[in-house]
Design a protein that fits this description.
heterotrimer, A mainly beta, B mainly alpha, C mainly beta, A: mainly beta, 6-stranded mixed sheet, 3-stranded antiparallel sheet, 2 helices, C: mainly beta, Immunoglobulin-like, 5-stranded mixed sheet, 8 strands, elongated
Chain lengths: 151, 421, 107
Amino acid sequence: MQQISRRAALALGAAGATLSVIGWGRDAQATPDAAKAEIAKFTGGKAATEGKISIELPEIAENGNTVPLAISVDAPMTADDHVTDVLVVAEGNPNPGVATFHFTPLSGKADASTRIRLATTQNIVVTAKTSKGAFYTASKLVKVTIGGCGG
Amino acid sequence: MQRAGMMTAGTAALAAMVAGVITLAPAAAQTKKEAPLVTTGDAAARPWKRYSGWPTRDESKWSTLAKVASPPPPKPEDVKKITGPITGDAKKGEELVADRNRGGSCLACHVMGPAGGANLPGNVGPDLSEIGAAGREDEWLYNYIYDARVYNAETVMPPWGSHGVFTDAEIRDMVAFLKTLKSPAKFKTVLDDPNKRPAPVEKRENLDPMENPGMWAVDKAQELFKQASAKGSCASCHSDPAKEFKTWAASMPKWEPRLGKVLGVEEFVTRHAAATTGAQWLMETDDNRTMSVYLHFLANGAPIAVDTQSADAKAAIARGKELAERKIGELNFACTDCHGKAANHWIRGQWLGEPKGQYDHFPTWRTSLQAIWDIRQRFQWCQVNIRADELSPDAKEYGDLELYLAAQNDGLKLSVPGIRH
Amino acid sequence: MADTPKIRVPKTAKKGEIIEIKTLMPHIMESGQRKDKDGKIIPRKIINKFVAEFEGKPVFSATLEPAIAANPYLQFNAKVEASGTFKFSWTDDDGTVTTAESKIEVA
């Protein structure tokens, strides 16, 4: 009778499936101050006005590995008045930077969605720059859940 | 190409390496309609080696799904006598109840006033925020932590003292902390309150490859299906898989008399491939999972309809139920503790689901791990997580348990690969 | 196959319509923060830039950090005035650039 060979079993077992956790180590965390510094670099120190930006994020994320994020800036997106850049920073990640989106009038809308990594419960801060040199900002808290039995 | 992270590399190379030692033999004693299966040998690696990255603790002294080894529960007369008031270190106790390295911590199941910053506690057990004003004797508090079974044989609470997770002194510290709890917990956000936290709803489009990387296995499987091994490929016999397997996976797992156990899709794939094409698709290898995703995918939309009526199926389901109710591991949980008695509650930040709905999406993509898990790996993880040794994925006990679970999911339509956290 | 980018662009649009574009690039997005079994840092390897152009003109681009999840997904919009070709490119830390194209007909 045909066998599933013991050698095959051993070889495959040794190299077999690994638990592959993609994401962060558990060491350093950024601080709200590091995030502020990142934003200051983006605005050149100019003050950003609260508003014009909506952030869509789950209130509670079952894990921080792939958290859906959508941002939308209320802007006409015409040649002479449009959003040019949007900076996304996370206050509690190892590094505050998440992404910078660059828009043009051809974008049609200053909307973008992606999926992000969050090391822990934290604020996400979004800052937008317009072609007229104005800055807007908004933030949102995401709670990243803690596993049950230590898992 | 396989994605690092999604699938481990090298499986194909290994299969090629070992191909030389496989001797194909005709499946002689088969009746007409039976699919050829290799009925000897193991369908998974031996000795079973725990996945890398998983906790490596040796839990061999505790019961598993294959053996009863844990000490028997105490009797009511085994209450530990405590003379005089307990004077532990309440501050240490507060740290201990929130220590996630000690079996998930008390906060996994209880709200406990300010402990752990009241950050996402669970609600499997009662809110203990005012236990210090409830007039409980120190002896009662001590014994409830040490081994709650002396007061309540039906409890799901781990026997922290009997199983040696906490020492006598540590339990006294925790009792001292409990005695300080006299006012309701203050939550930073409404989400921290487990009684107000909304139950998670899975809304992602699990069959959209833009959403679910698990779907890429379906593409990969179609190549694998045509890939020739020693004696041909799947496609040599199965020319129209979409038609042939329209409902097949929804009828699995099934009692297999030639093996004397319940076979799920994954073990079937291993044994059938070995008997036909000669492919070595051992359970919990990438190729096996990929084929399992594909075969389930082809049956998507078909309601789960496993055999529950034959005498063999009935006996297997009865065994599966008994296994689901067996207390295992250092934490002394049965499947039915978390997914029965405590179902629809929060265990810390995670929602405990009922058995129904825990099967129709397997194998599933796990966003937290960036990997596909089949149901057997899910079983294994539950066990390792409650500090019990897992079994090999082809263990007959898992077959019985899988059939019992599938029977509870009867009628639910397959939607594979799922996407879960 | 799993390594090729996935794109979703409507095949047709009306003149001046703002369409939705979805892109996904299979990539591990190794953050440079993780350690291997021996405690050594696994070097960072991410897609650090994404660019979308229409007929050579910039539509949308993104600078990505390690906080972007594996298999970077981007959804954005484009205002189309005429038929033409979208070109997308993803730049890896190692310098590799992966590109993809998609045509759209404007009625």
